[in-house]
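testing teh design pipeline on a random one, pls ignore if ur not involved
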């Protein structure tokens, strides 16, 4: 009986440690995400966006707030990262600009210097893979961190 209690206790401690590790992972991604990003490639609805348009796309992240700039268009909003899911998920909501208030559900990959995100259309379903197919209205964006 004592042995069973010890095993149950160890199992519970392991679950607690795993939950803490997931929280730390999300915090780590959020910390990594802070800063300035510049688009290097964009696909929308299964088509590559021309390089001259891609060059005008940037993202500034401060905590859970973001500012997405596309030429003269500026969109502000908030986001939540969930690094515990596979693939990792991001939920963004625009606080101003086109699509204000509609959730953007996406998946992402993040390293210290690169950010890849795939968003469904505003108010639409979350993509399950990093692909933008014709007719999907899915955006696949690859960004690199801007050096200060």
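output:
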């Amino acid at each position: 009986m004592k042995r069973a209690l010890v095993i149950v206790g160890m199992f519970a401690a392991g679950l607690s440690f795993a939950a803490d590790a997931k929280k730390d992972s999300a915090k780590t991604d959020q910390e990594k995400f802070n800063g300035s990003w510049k688009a290097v490639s964009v696909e929308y609805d299964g088509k590559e966006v021309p390089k001259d348009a891609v060059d005008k796309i940037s993202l500034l992240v401060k905590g859970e707030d973001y500012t997405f700039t596309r030429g003269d268009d500026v969109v502000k909003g908030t986001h939540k990262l969930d690094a515990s899911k596979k693939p990792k998920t991001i939920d963004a909501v625009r606080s101003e600009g086109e699509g204000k208030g509609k959730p953007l559900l996406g998946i992402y990959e993040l390293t210290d210097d690169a950010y890849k995100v795939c968003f469904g259309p505003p108010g639409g379903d979350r993509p399950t893979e990093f692909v933008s197919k014709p007719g999907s209205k899915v955006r696949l964006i690859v960004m690199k961190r801007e050096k200060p």
